[in-house]
Amino acid sequence: MQLSGYRLLWLQVLYDLPVTSKAKQKAATEFRDFLLGLGFEMAQYSVYQRACSGKEMADTLTKQIEQNLPRYGRIHILMVTDRQYEKMKTFHGTEEGMRRRKRENPDQLTLF
């Protein structure tokens, strides 16, 4: 079966969590670690993304995230097709602190 750019999806989780106390800092760190455990990668601070093989997988991940929401803060989940994602434009600042190394493609992408 050939994979379609309209069937493959990217799930992005964008969040703003308070870190005004030790307990809230811990909750924010636990949520971040939870996303990493699900296979998400950091796109930028408080923005994590993951490729999904289809809507069913994206829906499953969304439900898992909903079941593990921190008590405080705002979380948005954005689902876009691979075709939409490839049209994204990315800009990098010129200051050394803004530069990140170019992201390397993984050796192999495992789709379920």
Structure description:
The structure is a single chain. 29% of the residues lie in helices and 23% in strands. The protein starts with 8 loop residues before the first strand and ends in a 26-residue tail after the last helix. It has a four-stranded antiparallel β-sheet with strand order 2-3-1-4. It has a single domain, classed as Alpha-Beta Plaits, CATH 3.30.70.240. The longest helix is centred in the first third of the chain and has 16 residues, at 22-37. The protein is an alpha+beta fold and 112 residues long.
The side-by-side strand order for the widest beta sheet comes to: 2-3-1-4
The CATH topology comes to Alpha-Beta Plaits
How far the N terminus sits from the C terminus, by CA atoms, comes to 13 Å
What percentage of residues falls in helices of 4 or more residues? Answer: 25-40%
Q: Output the CATH class name.
A: Alpha Beta
- Major β-sheet profile: 4 strands, antiparallel
Portion in beta strands: 15-25%
Summarize the structure.
The chain has 112 residues and is α+β, with helices and mostly antiparallel strands. The protein contains three helices and four strands. A hairpin with a 2-residue loop joins strand 2 and strand 3.
